[in-house]
Design brief:
CATH class: Mainly Beta
Shape: elongated
Number of domains: 1
Strand content: over 45%
Radius of gyration: 21 Å
Largest sheet: 8 strands, antiparallel, barrel
Distance between the termini: 47 Å
Order of helices and strands: HHEEEEEEEE
Helix content: 10-25%
Number of strands: 8
CATH topology: Porin
Strand order of the largest sheet: 1-2-3-4-5-6-7-8
Structural class: alpha+beta
């Protein structure tokens, strides 16, 4: 079990290196969309010979008194019942002040199964994986002797969801979803106390609930 934890921690450190994270996410998105396009070439065609499956643009912006979430991505229908989703989400949570806040960046590929066929009114079940990074900022009064100078978390999560598409027009609809989520998290805290710097590493498994909505445009 210890070896598995060390291997997963090394994997997280490599893939979530901040200098290369954007490049790696771009490569993952490109490869995922390329695979979707290849799969679509083997899909059934309509009477005019055009592919009958859709691309969708997805996005959301949800402000709240304690922060906001913003996300964007694409969805590709690959069969009558199946679609694949790629989402990139950013969260900001204020913990009492502008200086004390959490910033989360999250990339989530997902596959969805739509009961009775894909439509902008369908129910669906899905499985997802997400990879992310959380930066935690702390604020202090000038007389504090022990301060945290660096605090961040890296995680890989997975889960299952159920959801519903809600039609707004022939090309625009909302999707709502909810389901359990589990994740492996590694946390690094660097603290300075009386000119002495110490770093603590923590590994843990967590569970929770994933819930959300997106605005979708079919093109």
């Amino acid at each position: 079990m210890i070896n598995q934890t060390l291997i997963l921690k090394s994997f997280l450190s490599y893939w979530l290196n901040q200098e290369l994270l954007t490049m790696r996410l771009t490569i993952i998105i490109f490869l995922t969309l390329s695979c979707c396009s290849i799969i679509a070439q083997f899909s059934e065609s309509n009477d005019n010979g055009d592919l009958e499956y859709f691309w969708l643009l997805k996005g959301r912006y949800l402000p709240s008194p304690i922060g906001y979430t913003i996300g964007f991505g694409v969805e590709r229908q690959i069969s009558d019942e199946l679609s694949v989703v790629c989402l990139y989400n950013m969260f900001r949570i204020n913990a009492g002040s502008e200086e004390s806040s959490n910033r989360i960046r999250l990339f989530s590929p997902e596959i969805r199964y739509h009961w009775n066929g894909y439509s902008n009114k369908s129910f669906f079940a899905s499985a997802f994986v997400d990879v992310g990074h959380e930066e935690v900022n702390h604020s202090y009064t000038p007389d504090v002797e022990s301060v945290i100078v660096d605090h961040h978390k890296k995680f890989v999560g997975y889960g299952l969801m159920v959801g519903k598409n809600l039609e707004l027009s022939s090309r625009i609809y909302l999707d709502f979803y909810i389901g359990p989520r589990w994740s492996f998290l590694t946390e690094d805290i660097t603290r300075m106390e009386l000119q002495e710097v110490t770093t603590v590493n923590k590994d843990q498994h967590t569970s929770g609930l994933r819930i959300g909505m997106n605005l979708n445009f079919i093109f």
